[in-house]
Design brief:
Strand content: 35-45%
CATH class: Mainly Beta
Low-confidence stretches: none
Mean pLDDT: 87
Number of helices: 0
Strand order of the largest sheet: 2-1-4-5
Largest sheet: 4 strands, antiparallel
Radius of gyration: 13 Å
Distance between the termini: 18 Å
Order of helices and strands: EEEEEE
């Protein structure tokens, strides 16, 4: 395994994706267990998904998980849950 990709986007109260908020982080290091994601809107809901990848292929995206930011707009995403 070469690493993980973490995809996130802001969603509204109904779960609809907000335009132009999708980002993908390449975590690269397969030993990484959590990622701190900053630059998010304060007091907003984000939907996170991740996948593992190798040199040859990518896995499937996980089921999304919603997280609400509080104040500062930073989330620590635990990659093991």
């Amino acid at each position: 395994m070469r690493g993980y990709r973490l995809q996130y986007t802001a969603v509204n109260d109904l779960g609809d994706v907000l335009d132009d908020t999708r980002k993908v982080l390449d975590l690269g290091n397969s030993s990484m267990m959590e990622a701190v994601v900053g630059g998010l809107r304060a007091d907003s809901v984000y939907q996170f998904e991740m996948l593992a990848y190798t040199r040859k292929t990518e896995g499937e995206w996980t089921r999304h998980r919603r997280v609400k930011t509080h104040g500062a707009g930073t989330v620590t995403y635990n990659c093991t849950n």
